[in-house]
Amino acid sequence: MLERFVEKTTFTSQEDFEKNLKIKTPENFNFGYDVVDAWAAEEPEKIAIRWTNDHGAHIDFTYAELKKKTDQTAAYFQSLGIGKGDMVMLILKRRYEFWFSIIALHKIGAVAIPATHLLTEKDIIYRAQAATIKAIVCVGEDVVLEHVKNSLPKSPSVEYVISVGPNVPEGFLDFTKGIESAPEFKPKRVNTNHDISLMYFTSGTTGNPKMVAHDFCYPLGHIVTGSFWHNLHEGSLHLTVADTGWGKAVWGKLYGQMIAGATIFVYDHEKFTPADMLKMIQDYKITSFCAPPTIFRFMILEDLRKYDLSSLKWCTIAGEALNPSVYEEFHKLTGVKLHEGFGQTETTCTVLTTPWMEPKPGSMGRPNPAYDIDIVDEEGKPVEQGTHGEIVIRATRDNKPNGLFLGYYRAEELTENTWHDGVYHTGDVAWRDEDGYLWFVGRNDDVIKSSGYRIGPFEVESALMTHPAVAECAITGVPDPVRGQVVKATIVLKAEFKDKAGDDLVKDIQNHVKHTTAPYKYPRVVEFVDVLPKTISGKIKRVDLRK
């Protein structure tokens, strides 16, 4: 399958990869037909998804079965009048109906809008109105059903609400009965490569969430994610820890994995428990695992030696600062190195640690050669090695690489502000070392300028997280008459340290940072709080802290 979409499938070195990676783009590419149905025709009994949950249920879906289910779902959606360009929100947690639905929507040219089950009535109303959503497919759980139901009076565009069960209350259509009784599906390509196929509401630290629109070629951008970051092949069994409401799900539980021929492992659970996750890896013999550093921290505390993790060959991480001690401990206990990667909702994996690179804990890796990536100063000029600058992608909206978004839906001015003069501005600040590895500093607005120094919150937070008292933290800049700004740490203490909050602990934390990173970065102001303000997607709202 991979050879259909890349000119060269194997590489001998990082140099070979960066020089010779070429992704081929078919006309009117459709992931449902060109990947899912293609696998069903060639290897119908090949397992596409291995699904299990925390109640002991287990189902393997072969590609023949996945084609049948997605065809039935597509026919059902069509019977409701859902077609090309119609917006459908999917609030499906880790239920297998998510895969049926998103692939079916691709097949009929509709637009899938994955969403988290944490959305409230207000959140759903905003999204329904902003995107003119036509239908909502959701899990049949009381809290979700109640929020969806309550949103309807102020969501006039929503014609159908569909529940996948277990509860299907009055006013909701029954997904299972619907697909079982759907007419025969007659496949027909209705999309072009540039039509919208997928849209995410991405929450920043200010304002309402932006609508990030991706085209039908977006899955091809995840070839690098699956084959050269997750390092997958046809014998792989891959687990990414992510709810389907977040962009990370299609990064790690759909596109790149299926193109690579790997089997996707899905563990449908309500609450993350390190012991359960480790048991899944052990019992199902997971070969490739991707999760944020927090997950690895919790698993190490569980004592990895209790589990047989010998099947695990490759691990990847993204999303937050990696504590080098976590890297070293995990490597010592498993023999597996953690390979970092980086990207945005607007992109696929833009920076990654490939199989030909030696990981540097804390570094994102090297730029994805499918993108033209640079680090520039405020005037747009490339910066020297070791100098902080903004990560940018050189591309025009008429000639962009697969994986880069189309723009912010119904927000042309916002799109123009970030993507102009042949450059997409990520707003992320980083620096490049002597080996070409990139190191994340922070968001542009978050970088602190103190006494002539530029200090990234990410690197100070990383240092703080190595202190035994710190459970969670956020770094911001506060005004100072002498230095312009000084570093402030807002800290949530671990339970056993809460009664020790005071001047002595503040000094100990400050000294710890001075010895862990450059001394000028230490927080001159420290505040202890019970919780940090966050967006619905879990991002720390630094703007609230700055206020």
In short:
The chain has 547 residues and is of the alpha/beta class. It is built from 18 helices and 27 strands.
Please report the total strand number as a whole number: 27
Distance between the ends: 52 Å
The spatial strand order of the largest sheet comes to 2-1-11-10-12-13-14-15-16
Main structural class: alpha/beta
Task: Indicate the mean pLDDT.
Answer: 94
Strand residue percentage: 25-35%
Count of DSSP-assigned helices: 18
Describe this structure in words.
The structure is a single chain. This protein is of the alpha/beta class and 547 residues long. 30% of the residues lie in helices and 26% in strands. The strands form 6 sheets. It has a 9-stranded mixed beta sheet, with helices on both faces. A 5-stranded parallel beta sheet has the order 4-3-5-6-7, with helices on both faces. A hairpin with a 4-residue loop joins strand 1 and strand 2 (58-62). Helix 5 packs across helix 6 (142-151). The longest helix is centred in the first third of the chain and has 17 residues, at 63-79. The termini are far apart. 47% of the residues are buried. The model has no long low-confidence stretch (mean pLDDT 94).
Summary tags:
9-stranded mixed sheet, 547 residues, 5-stranded parallel sheet, alpha/beta, 18 helices, 30% helix
